[in-house]
Design brief:
Layout: H1 11-35, E1 41-43, E2 48-55, H2 69-91, H3 96-119, E3 122-128, H4 147-169
Antiparallel strand pairs: 1-2, 2-3
Helix pairs in contact: 1-3, 2-3, 3-4
């Protein structure tokens, strides 16, 4: 079930991994919604807070101020990306790092699409503060994010690593 006839990881493995990301993301967001009111902040350390923020936009609140159309745009974009990623997983099953990377992106995208469909916004709750960020972000606070965003970021970084490795190998 987890390996195809060619010995490569099967589509079921990648979809199961994406589902784990979605479940972890939704579980953590549910806990935040139950324990925090909008705008609440609970310091954990000098540089990390748990917060409750609603993001109607995309990364860094891109399009958050739009009139509501962005909800459906991002749901459609997430659905299209999911279909494309499943196609890529089927097309390149032997490329493990590539498949892992796009699986993380898919899991994160679906996690955020679930939020948009259920709430009309994405629940963010992880907030970091670093003094060196003060020139870029007010107070040095990096924009709040969630498990889905972390999976998307991990997937994007690993996708770049995979491409650099492929180019270095010459193909």
């Amino acid at each position: 079930m987890w390996r195809s006839n060619s010995g490569a990881p099967s589509l079921a493995l990648w979809l199961g991994l994406a589902l784990l990301v979605v479940v972890a993301d939704q579980l953590t967001k549910t806990l935040v919604l139950q324990q925090f009111q909008l705008g609440d902040s609970q310091p954990v350390s000098s540089f990390f807070n748990l917060v409750r923020v609603h993001n109607t936009g995309a990364a860094f609140s891109f399009l958050a101020g739009a009139s509501g159309w962005q909800r459906w745009f991002f749901i459609g974009l997430g659905a299209a990306a999911t279909v494309f990623i499943v196609w890529m997983l089927r097309k390149y099953p032997a490329q493990k790092l590539f498949c892992f990377s796009i699986t993380m992106i898919m899991g994160g995208a679906v996690g955020n699409v679930v939020d948009r469909a259920l709430h009309g916004y994405v629940v963010d709750f992880l907030q970091f503060r670093f003094a060196l960020l003060e020139p870029v972000f007010r107070g040095g606070y990096f924009p709040s994010f969630n498990v889905a965003d972390s999976a998307i970021t991990l997937g994007a970084v690993l996708l770049i690593v995979d491409e650099l490795r492929r180019v270095r190998r010459g193909g």
